[in-house]
Write a structure and sequence with these properties.
With 368 residues, this protein is mainly beta. It has 3 domains: 16-121, Immunoglobulins (Immunoglobulin-like); 122-239, Immunoglobulins (Immunoglobulin-like, Sandwich); 247-350, Sandwich (Immunoglobulin-like), CATH 2.60.40. It has 3 helices and 27 strands. The strands form 6 sheets. Strands 9-10-12-16-14 form a 5-stranded antiparallel β-sheet. A 5-stranded mixed β-sheet has the order 11-18-17-13-15, with no helix packed on it. Strand 9 and strand 10 form a beta hairpin.
Length: 368
């Protein structure tokens, strides 16, 4: 009995993600457009969780999923698309999900009935239960923080009962939904308008010159499937005032490229890239990422006062590599005008042919 309790406790410890639903019934769908549903999961543990494998039971079912690790309390998604073309009749398909919090897989199931149609498809090609859409993905394009753009999604009630758009589910503060009209009668057409507030996006921490991809979830009264999903994407740019720029930090690399010349295979190429803050406020080093085959040591000082400097040490191990080599280190800071700098480390590696392995290539010897 004590062993059983211990095993149960261990199982609960490792079961760190939970799905809102593990099965979805599409009901009747029209042959042609793909049947798409998004399964939402939450990390209820105390450590980040990453999906390691998501496999469908057949080639007619395609999953797309959250690639990055989900932090504690965060949510992720697995979008499952079933190809209905040429497949009239009942279907039941599964998706096997594995993650690094537990060896036991999670099985997701989709099912429904594909109705054959000899009628030409109209513009409402994407069917989700009682609603049909012209599309469910839209791009905002390039959005600035002083703008408030909108995108529209055309929708039609193809069912036999009225469907009301109730509200957004866990809607982020930079988005606003408008339903026109709020309730669709059978056969009625309408629009769902998604508005993006650039000022609110900046206040929420969206960074300058970055892309965004957001899943908009909507609660409806559709009796077959109440939750609907729309996807919006685009790029985001912060517009700074002259006053903000005058007080901002400024990241300056006097040298952004170092060529070590010819080095013997097995030697280490090393360079200290100096970074100075020539601005009027603190410069924050947010990340340092090296390309494959290169390493970059982050400085101990992540915050540089105005006038201060530090160094980022880049190293390239030439073992097992010959010929021209070009490695990069990407440094991101809170400099509003130069937030991302790419540093270059080059060398031409000569084959050692078994002699003189090891050692360190001459460095520039720069201090700070």
């Amino acid at each position: 009995m004590r062993t059983s309790v211990a095993l149960l406790s261990l199982s609960l410890l490792w079961a760190q993600i939970t799905f809102e639903k593990s099965e979805y019934d599409f009901g009747e769908v029209i042959e042609g457009p793909p049947a798409v549903h998004t399964f939402i999961f939450k990390n209820i543990g105390s450590k980040p969780v990453k999906l390691t494998s998501v496999k469908a039971s057949c080639g007619c079912t395609t999953p797309n999923w959250t690639q990055e690790a989900v932090p504690p309390g965060g949510t992720g998604q697995i979008q499952v698309s079933y190809d209905t073309k040429g497949r009239p009749g009942n279907f039941i398909k599964t998706v096997t999900v594995q993650h690094d919090a537990d060896d036991k897989p999670v099985i997701l199931t989709i099912k429904g009935v594909v109705k054959s149609s000899n009628q030409p498809l109209d513009k409402y090609a994407e069917v989700d239960a009682n609603l049909a859409w012209t599309k469910r993905r839209e791009s905002f394009g390039h959005v600035k923080s002083d703008q408030t753009p909108s995108v529209s999604f055309e929708v039609k009630n193809i069912g036999q009962v009225p469907v009301e758009f109730v509200e957004g589910i866990d809607l982020k503060p930079m988005f606003k939904l408008t339903f026109s009209p709020k309730t669709l009668a059978p056969g009625q057409e309408g629009k769902v308008i998604v508005t993006l507030d650039g000022k609110a996006a900046r206040a929420a921490g969206w960074k300058n010159q970055t892309g965004f991809y957001e899943n908009i979830r909507i609660r409806t009264t559709d009796p077959i499937s109440s939750e609907k999903q729309l996807v919006v994407n685009g790029s985001f740019e912060i517009v700074y005032t002259p006053e903000e720029l005058a007080k901002a930090p400024k990241a300056v690399f006097p040298v952004i490229e170092f060529d070590g010349g010819e080095v013997l295979e097995g030697q280490m190429v090393e360079y200290r890239f100096v970074l100075r803050n020539e601005g009027k406020s603190d410069l924050i080093i947010e990340s340092v990422k090296a390309s494959c085959g290169c390493t970059a040591v982050e400085p101990a000082e992540k915050v540089l006062k105005p006038g201060a400097s530090t160094a980022i040490v880049a190293k390239f191990d030439s073992r097992g590599r010959t010929g021209p080599q070009h490695k990069t280190i990407t440094v991101e800071t809170n400099d509003p005008q130069n937030g991302r700098a790419v540093l270059h480390l080059k060398a031409h590696v000569i084959s050692a042919s078994g002699f003189g392995l090891g050692g360190t290539a001459p460095t520039n010897g720069v201090g700070y």
